[in-house]
Hints:
This protein has one helix spanning 2-25, and strands at 50-58, 61-69, 74-81, 88-95, 100-109, 118-131, 134-145, 154-164, 196-204, 211-218, 223-230, 238-244, 249-258, 264-277, 280-291, 296-306. It is mainly beta and 307 residues long. It has 2 domains: 50-164, Beta Barrel (Lipocalin), CATH 2.40.128.30; 196-306, Lipocalin, CATH 2.40.128. The chain is elongated. Residues 1-39 and 168-179 have low confidence and may be disordered.
Amino acid sequence: xxxxxxxxxxxxxxxxxxxxxxxxxxxxxxxxxxxxxxxxxxxxxxxxxxxxxxxxxxxxxxxxxxxxxxxxxxxxxxxxxxxxxxxxxxxxxxxxxxxxxxxxxxxxxxxxxxxxxxxxxxxxxxxxxxxxxxxxxxxxxxxxxxxxxxxxxxxxxxxxxxxxxxxxxxxxxxxxxxxxxxxxxxxxxxxxxxxxxxxxxxxxxxxxxxxxxxxxxxxxxxxxxxxxxxxxxxxxxxxxxxxxxxxxxxxxxxxxxxxxxxxxxxxxxxxxxxxxxxxxxxxxxxxxxxxxxxxxxxxxxxxxxxx
Length: 307
C-alpha cells in the first residue's frame, strides 16, 4: 500500500510538470495576462492608390493630365495644355479615404501682352467615385496669378474629369497591391482667353463720313496684328497693331497715309473692351484720329467678334 501511494504522487507531479510550461506560454489562460500584442492587424490598403489619366476644359482651355497616387494618398503628376504646346506643368496634391481630391498646379507661363511671364496657381477640388471596379473623378479648377502684371487676378476656370488607367502601370503598393482608383487631375495653365481671329466694323460719330471694317488676330500673349479698310479710300489697307490684356482691355493703333492733296499721315487710336459670354467673345469701343501735325481728324465707334 505504501509503495502504491508513492507511485501515485510521482505520477501527479509528472503531469503538473508537463502542464506548467503550457500555462507559462499562453498568458491570459487562467487570468495571468491580457493576450494583447500577439497579433498585429495590418492597416487596410489605400483605396485610391494607382495611376490616373484624364482631361480638363474651360474657355479657351483644353488639356490632359497623368498622375499617380501612393499608399498615403499623396498625388504627383503632370499636366499639358493644347494651347501651350511643349510645356509640361507639375501637379501635386492629395486624395483622402473619403475620395476628396485637392490638388494644385503651379507654373510660370507667358500669359501677358508681349510674352510677359506670370506665376499661375491652379487649384483643383473634386471627388472620386468607384463603380464596378473603375474609379472616376470630377471637379472644378480655378487659376489665379500670384506674380506678374496680373497678380491677384483670376486667369481662368473650368472642369476636369478622369479615371484610373486600366492599361497603365499602377503605382507599386507599399506592402499590399493597391486597388486602382481615380486620382485628382492636375490643373493646367490656362490659355489666353481672348486669343483668336476677329472681324468687325467701325463708323464715324455725328454723321462723319467714316465707314470701314477690320480683320485682326490676337495671339496667346495678347498681341494684336491685322488690317483696317475704309470705304472712302477703296483699295487701301492700313496696318493695325496693339494688344488685349487679361482683363479684356483693348489698345490698338491704326496708322497710314491718306491719298489727299497734300498726302496726310494719320494715327487712329482705338480703346475698348472684350467680353466673353456663353462661349462667344465680342469687342467694342471708340476711336479718335489725329493727323501728323496733331490736328483732330475724326472719331467714332467700333464693334466686332471672334470668328
